[in-house]
Amino acid sequence: MFAFLKGVVQSKDLSNGSLSRLVLDVSGVGFEIWMASRSLLSLGKAGDEVIVHTFLAVRETEMTIFGFETADERQLFQILQTVSGIGPKLALQIVGSLGVKLVVDAILEEDVKTISQAPGVGPKVAQRIVLELPGKIEEFAARLGAKQEPVNVAGDVQEEVRAILGGLGYTGTEISMALRKAQGDADLSQDVESLVRFSLKVLGASAVS
Questions:
Q1: Are 148 and 101 in contact (CB under 8 A)?
Q2: Are residues 64 and 75 located together in one domain of the fold?
Q3: Is 197 helix (H, G, I), strand (E, B) or coil?
Q4: 36 beta partners
Q5: pTM for this prediction
Q6: N or C: which end of the chain has fewer CB within 10 A?
């Protein structure tokens, strides 16, 4: 029903969990919107005019508006709900905690471990996601991939680093995340040892958080 809402941030109620509440003033009407806490943090402050991509979930006894930073987040949110047992709140938690690219990569690589890191997602739910979604997500993944800038690492260096990190037990998704963080650093792009050291630091910090 709503593709997006453009209005002024009236209030942001950040919770300790993964979902938080936004009240958006749209021409004098206050819309209550639920967003991933990470997305709401970066949205702006009270008084700022913003655009929030939205999805209206209608149940028998309630209507809930969910909000997103981008249209890609909203589309992935909708795709995730085609998996049995995943409702809008859990779908939002997955997208909000992991991000679009990481979720898509994990699905295509059947990386249950990464998907299981999202709040509320256990191994069984993660397994259903990687079993049910690859065929449904290919077109979305191809369009998303066309938007991504390539990692600024020479091909042979990248392959060697991937082989080393893979041998240490890291998944393809985790390795890609570390390489993206190294993008644009000329000191890292041609040096396997430095890039491996940097990647291990990133992956170690990710595991702790």
A1: yes
A2: no
A3: helix
A4: 19
A5: 0.71
A6: C
